[in-house]
DNA sequence: GCCCGCATGTAACTGGTTACATGATTGT
DNA sequence: ACAATCATGTAACCAGTTACATGCGGGC
């Protein structure tokens, strides 16, 4: 569990606790709501990870918000552990883009369905872009630690660039499909 | 195995065979080399998937290139199956961007390490962009089926937009970090 | 003859997700 | 009291990856 593999979950958990102590439940929500744009952890991994980290002394189960719940806080060794983890090389996840896979086989899927997929991708990208704009404004206004703010805005900016790129690609692609002859799906009309 | 889950592997395999018949080995290489920019299948899944598809009559094991090897070809029912699969809704994969996760905790990682990560991301994006340019030229030149070419160029274009967005984000981010005070990692030198 | 690349598979392991089980606290 | 939510965990399952086992054919 301390191998190079499970380290990503550890990184997210320790990182979140490095900002402020919280319960496992709050941790889950923080990861979903704050890191959600570029990271996700499944529910069932948070508590086991917390247990492992506690065994290694990287986090402590401190004073309770109320009976039955515990506030997890990062320790000094946990801070060191986080630093070590952050310094590990980024492991590239194998790409799996369901949209592009379908478009690649667009001849079999049909031009109309492709158009619909791209249009939907455009809508999604626009929504994401709006969300990022809102988040950027919120982060710039609320965040107390200006040290953190700089980096948080960096991740938001990445999302915005990505969303804008998708928008541009979608517009360009829809134009290309409009210009192309509306051949029906998978027909060989070479005769 | 015929559930909504394993369907993505089936889609890639059937799609590849819809272009031309090949051996399982060639299939693996085609998926790696041709779909590699947006899709990946692990080796150990291709043969089981082929076996399942054969049982369902979606592919046939045809004439051999030489003893011991078989050419897999898509059948009529396989073509239908492919169409059905392609029409299934795109299932979004939960985001897991190790780079952004590290940058988000940049205060703990340190400004210098962040700069290095972004610089590396820039190098990678530039390399991808060059590759896409080469692929686009190659596809436009070689491809016989102009029906396929249109869609293939769409996926290449997506890669280019994405790579260019990463380049722009990296440049912008490096400028931001240069402008910011070079505070060392995780130190409180407020005293 | 021997090694390398093509070719087909299987087995074991790992990481991640979902669903389930349980109970405390708070507000109505 | 009752429902909703907070909170902590466990068990079962599934998908995907890696490594291993095997054998043929052709070139050196």
Q: Any overview of this molecule?
A:
The structure is a homodimer of 191-residue chains. With 191 residues, chain A is mainly alpha-helical. Chain A is 65% helix and 4% strand. Chain A contains 8 helices and 2 strands. Chain A has helices at 7-19, 24-33, 43-55, 76-87, 98-104, 106-109, 111-142, 146-179, and strands at residues 59-62, 71-74. The first copy, chain A, has a two-stranded antiparallel ribbon with strand order 1-2. In chain A, helix 1 crosses helix 4 and helix 7 packs antiparallel against helix 8. Chain A binds a DNA duplex (28 and 28 nucleotides) through residues 5-6, 9, 23-26, 41-45, 47-48, 50-51, 65-70, 94.
Radius of gyration of chain A: 22 Å
Strand order of the largest sheet of chain A: 1-2
Assembly type = homodimer
Mean pLDDT of chain A: 89
Helix/strand-derived class of chain A?
mainly alpha
**Largest contact between protein chains?**
A-B, 65 and 65 residues
Short key terms for the protein model shown above:
2 strands, mainly alpha, homodimer, DNA-binding, Arc Repressor Mutant, subunit A
């Amino acid at each position: 569990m301390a191998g190079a593999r499970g380290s990503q979950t550890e990184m997210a958990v320790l990182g979140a606790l490095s900002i402020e102590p919280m319960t496992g439940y709050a941790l889950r929500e923080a990861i979903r709501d704050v890191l959600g744009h570029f990271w996700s952890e499944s529910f069932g991994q948070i508590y086991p990870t917390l247990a492992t980290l506690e065994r290694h002394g990287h986090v402590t189960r401190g004073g309770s918000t109320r009976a039955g719940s515990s506030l997890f806080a990062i320790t000094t060794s946990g801070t060191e552990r986080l630093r070590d983890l952050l310094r590990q090389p980024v492991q590239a996840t194998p790409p799996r883009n369901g949209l592009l896979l379908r478009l690649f086989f667009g001849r079999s899927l049909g031009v109309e369905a492709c158009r619909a997929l791209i249009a939907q991708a455009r809508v999604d990208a626009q929504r994401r872009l709006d969300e990022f704009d809102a988040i950027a404004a919120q982060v710039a206004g609320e965040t107390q630690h200006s040290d953190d703010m700089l980096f948080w805005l960096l991740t938001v900016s990445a999302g915005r660039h990505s969303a804008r790129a998708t928008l541009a690609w979608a517009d360009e692609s829809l134009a290309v499909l409009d210009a192309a002859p509306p051949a029906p799906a998978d027909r060989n009309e070479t005769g």
